[in-house]
Amino acid sequence: MPPRSQLISAPPSAVQEAIKRLGNNLRTARLRRNLSHAELAAKLGVDRHVIADAENGKLSTSAGVYVGMLWAMNLLPSLADVANPKNDEEGLALSGLDERERARQRGGPSNAF
């Protein structure tokens, strides 16, 4: 069995809180639509436990499940602004006018003495 990711086994608290908040938001949306775990799972073609795991903020749940849940409840447009480069103030400040399509390869001599 491959080793578990450190992100899964010991996530930063901000990551854990964000995924729990997303799960709670999805639960609220599902309940407002009067959908059971089984009904939402059937729309996505997954087991109902997968929906419960997502709503409980289980970090090993696939991003595709979260996106599928948004789609099934007509909430997918809300995903459009997540990590939108136009809203990335830090990235824009760091990049200046030098927009790249790929990161530079890290190699050569190290300045860490």
UniProtKB/TrEMBL annotation:
PROSITE patterns: HTH_CROC1. Residues 26-58 form the HTH cro/C1-type domain. This is HTH cro/C1-type domain-containing protein. It holds the Pfam family HTH_31. InterPro entries: Cro/C1-type_HTH, Lambda_DNA-bd_dom_sf. CDD domains: HTH_XRE (cd00093). It comes from the Bacteria. It comes from Bradyrhizobium canariense. Residues 82-113 are annotated as: Disordered.
